[in-house]
Amino acid sequence: MQARKLLTQSKLRITQNREEVLALLLESDVAVSNQVIESSLGHIDRITLYRTLKTFEDKGIIHKIIDSSQRSKYALCAENCTDHAHDDSHLHFECTQCGDITCHMDVKIPELHLPEGYTVSEINVIAKGLCSSCQ
Ligand SMILES: [Zn+2]
Ligand SMILES: [Zn+2]
Ligand SMILES: [Zn+2]
Questions:
Q1: Is 134 within the bounds of a domain?
Q2: Range of the domain at 100
Q3: 3 and 16 in contact (C-beta within 8 Å)?
Q4: Is 9 inside any structural domain?
């Protein structure tokens, strides 16, 4: 899907920054950090980028993944995410060789059976190992 179309669909005003950041995320097979976005686009300042990513996150377009070095990375959401609720309880895979994080939407996290009184609001599962290009 094109960035412009996705922005319109999410009722977001189209700006050059939004379009470029989203296009970059759409093209990427792996989750990207804000440093990577910043250096690939060159002209965007940190605050604008931070706000842009926050807006996308609020709108259910992207989700944040925290890698094992506590760095935030961003990836596109599946279609079932909305501005009301995210549904990103899929598996994330972190490659110990290249550091790439990939989303695996088709790998569902099993339902957890917790003791009474516990409610889950978010599940964060990261599997580590070698990705297909590092095998
Ligand atoms: Zn989401
Ligand atoms: Zn790898
Ligand atoms: Zn993901």
A1: no
A2: 3-129
A3: no
A4: yes
The per-residue pLDDT for range 54-112, each reduced to its tens digit, is 999 999 999 999 998 899 999 999 888 888 788 888 899 999 999 999 999 988 788 88
**Residue 8 within any structural domain of the chain:** yes
Q: What's residue 80's pLDDT?
A: 81
Neighbours of 60 (CB within 10 A): 20
- Ligand 2 centre distance from Cα of residue 94 (Å): 8
CATH number at residue 36: 1.10.10.10
Q: How far is 83 from 88, CA to CA, in rounded Å?
A: 13
Distance 55 CA to ligand 1 centre (A): 12
- What distance in angstroms lies between residue 57's CA and the mean position of ligand 1's atoms? 7
> How many structural domains does the chain have?
1
